Amino acid sequence: MNDIYIPQSEIQKQLNIADSLKDITKGKKACVITFGCQQNENDSERIAGALEMCGYEITDNSDIADVIIINTCAIREHAEIRALSEAGQFKGRKAADRSIKIGLCGCMAQQSHRREQIYKSYPYVDFIFGTDMHHRLPEIIKTALESKKRVSFITDKPHNEFGVISEGMPVRRESGYKAWVPVMYGCNNFCTYCVVPYARGQERSRKKEEVLAEVESLVKQGYKDITLLGQNVNSFSGGCSFAELLDKCASFEGEYTVRFMTSHPKDASDELIEVMANNPKVAKHFHLPVQSGSSRVLKLMNRKYDREKYLETAMKIKARVPNVSLTTDIIVAFPTETETDFADTMSLVENVGFDMIYTFIYSPRVGTVAAKMEGQIKREIANVRFKALSDLQNDVAQRLNEEFIGRTVRVLSDGYNKNGIPCGRSSQNKIVTYDKYVPEGQFVDVKVENVGAYLLNGKII
Q1: What CATH number does the domain containing 7 carry?
Q2: d(CA 79, CA 82)
Q3: CATH code (residue 249)
Q4: 172 burial via Cβ count (<10 Å: 0-12, 13-18, 19+)
Q5: How many structural domains is the chain composed of?
Q6: pTM of the model
Q7: What is the DSSP string of 184-245?
Q8: pLDDT of 307-347, one tens digit each?
Q9: Nearest alpha carbon to residue 428 among 268, 257, 182, 178
Q10: Which of the chain's ends, N or C, has fewer CB atoms near its CB within 10 Å?
C-alpha cells in the first residue's frame, strides 16, 4: 500500500510552489466546472482547495475567472459532449484575452482518443491533467503560467500501475454541513461497458486512520451528513473491512449521518448489512446497482453475480433494515438485450421494489469490451424500453412512498428548494418538503401528510 502514497516530501514541494505563486495570483480568480459523479465533485473540491492555496479567489462565475478548470466525466457519451461543449464556450473569451488559462481534467482527459480530439480541435485549452495528478496542481498551474505551449500531465502507466493516494492537500468544501470523504479510488472489476478502471486506475484504499481522522474532524466542525466514497466501497482494504470502517465512522459523539456509495452486489456482505441495521448514525439508504435483471446480460456485463444472487442480497437488506431505501442503476439496451432479457429487468424492478432507479440507455465506450460486441440495439428500441422502465418505476416509487403517510421522519434541512419551499433529506435520502423554514444543516422531525413518487411532504412537529 505504501508505494501508492505520494511522499510527504512531494506534498511539501507542491505546498512550496503554491506559496511562491501568491504574488502572481493576488487578486485573480479561478473557477472549477464539474461534470459527473460524486467522486468528481469531491475531486473538484480538492482542485478548488489547491487553487485557493495558490492564491486564487474561487468563483462560480467563469466570466470573471482568470483560470477555468473543467472537470470531465467519461461514463457516457452525453457527459463527454456536455464537457466539450462547455470548453467550446471559452474560445471567444480566450481570443479576446490570451492571459486567461483554461484547463481540462478528469476521466475524459484520461482517454487518449479524447485527448487527441482536444489537442486538435481545442487549441485554446492551455493545460490537461489526469485523475491521479490533483496533488501536482500547483506545479501544473505554475508551468501553465510560465509556458506558451500546452501543458499536459497525464500518466501513461497500465491499469495495475496507475493510481496514487495523496494526503495533506487542502479541500475547499462546497457545503458547511455535508461532506464527501473518499475511502478508496479506482476499480478492478472491469465491467465490459465501463471505462472507470482505465480512467481511474487500480483499486487503492486510504489507511483507515486517515479516513477516521477526516471524519472525526468533520464531525467536530459540525458537519451533519458525511458520505464515504469509493467505486466499490466493499473492496476497501485500508486496515479493516469496509463494514468495520463504516461502523467506526458512525461512532463519534454528536448527531450526524454517515452514508456510502457505491456498493457492488457481488460482495455486499452480511457484516455491512448488520452495521446499517444496528448503527443509528448509518443512513438507511443502500445503493446497490443491478444494471440488468437478466442473468444472461449480467454475464455479458461481467458483473460476477446473477439475478438470483442479487435478489437474495436485496431481500436480505430489506428484511434486516426496516424502512430502508433501496436504490439502483439500470442500463437499458445493452448489446444483444432481447425482449425476454428486458422483461426480466422489469420483473426484478417489480419484485424488489426500488425507491429510485437511475436509468441509462447503453452508451458504447471506446476501449471497452461491450463497444465491440455484435448486437448493438437500435436507439428507437432503447427509447421504448427506457420509457417503459421509467413508467413502471414511477408507479413503484409512488406506492412505496405512500407507506410513509402518517409517519414521522427525521430530516436534515437543505434550506429552500429552487421553488422557495423549505426542504431537506431523510436518512433514506428521500426529499422532504415541509411548512416552515429551518436553517441549513439542522435536523427536524416532519410528519408526512402526502407524497409524490419522489417526494414526501408534511409538517414540522
Answers
A1: 3.40.50.12160
A2: 5
A3: 3.30.750.210
A4: middle
A5: 4
A6: 0.96
A7: EE------TT--HHHHH-S-EE--HHHHHHHHHHHHHTT--EEEEE-TTGGG--SSS-HHHH
A8: 999 999 999 999 999 999 999 999 999 999 999 999 999 99
A9: 257
A10: C
